[in-house]
Amino acid sequence: MKNIESCIVRHGDLIPDRSAFIDAHTPGSNLKENYTIIGDGVSESADRHVHIKETPGFNIGGAGQPPKCTNSLHIHRTAEVFYILSGRWRFFWGNDGNDGEVILEAGDVLNIPTGIFRGFENVGTEYSMIMGVLGGDDSGGGVIWAPKVIEAAKAHGLVLGENGVLCDTNKNQSLPEGINPMKPLTDEELSKIPEVSTADFVPRFVARYLDMVALSDHKPALVIGDKGMIHDRPGFTLEFISKNSLSSDSYTSDQHEVFMVMKGYWNVTLNNEKAVISPGDVLTVAPGLERSLSPSRSNHASIFRVRKTDDQAGPTIDFP
Hints:
This protein is mainly β and about 325 residues long. The protein is about 10% helix and about 35% strand. A seven-stranded mixed beta sheet has the order 1-22-19-24-18-16-17.
């Protein structure tokens, strides 16, 4: 560790990528911004800015969107967990995005399983952000787009190569020799994707902020884990910590820990260096470092803690 600030990615220092994915030119999706915070994530842009390259067994990213802006339907090969940093968001899923939907508010958590198409849109009244945890060091090598997303992108000049890299024909770019365009899923492949209703999905994969607050009064609430609120083993655990969850005493861990601030201000000490982190900040702590956290000046302080596990980096829950 060089110094404590080298372990912190400040919300105000985040550098957006406005051409991270194939739908970057598609009306309705062209105003979104993506943030690659820890690890390479799944961006298809070759010139994205990665804030911290070293991964602790998972990736951390974020997305910011103005009202009515949509992130198009796609499938991840590894786990994708979101929490709402600000605003109001609609998440939807299914081959056409019509199988089900849920509205999430600030602090809510959603664990989207692999193997189904998902998308989301800002349904609030102002620019807002969500934060995400992706399973695995390489996040499974990109995403799979719904066929209609690929066709819409092509109509607006963007072509995705089979190597996972975008080509912007509006800038006279072309795919490298020997690289073909990404093939959309066939009707047969699409038919094998399960249909999941809202009634089946929400109780199993959504955790609400106020429920996490109630469960964290005396100890951290396990939100995602083997015996968590969302019973899953995606290659990492997610815990919710509020003002009464942790002692302010220092401790060490043999695990890499990442803290993401939801609300309030938190005093942090790493090997006797001190800092204050605030909403949207991300703190990464390597194994063996002495650390302590305590809320500062807020009765509503909350923070998420992510730890790697030895499970496969993808949900183990199968749909019926």
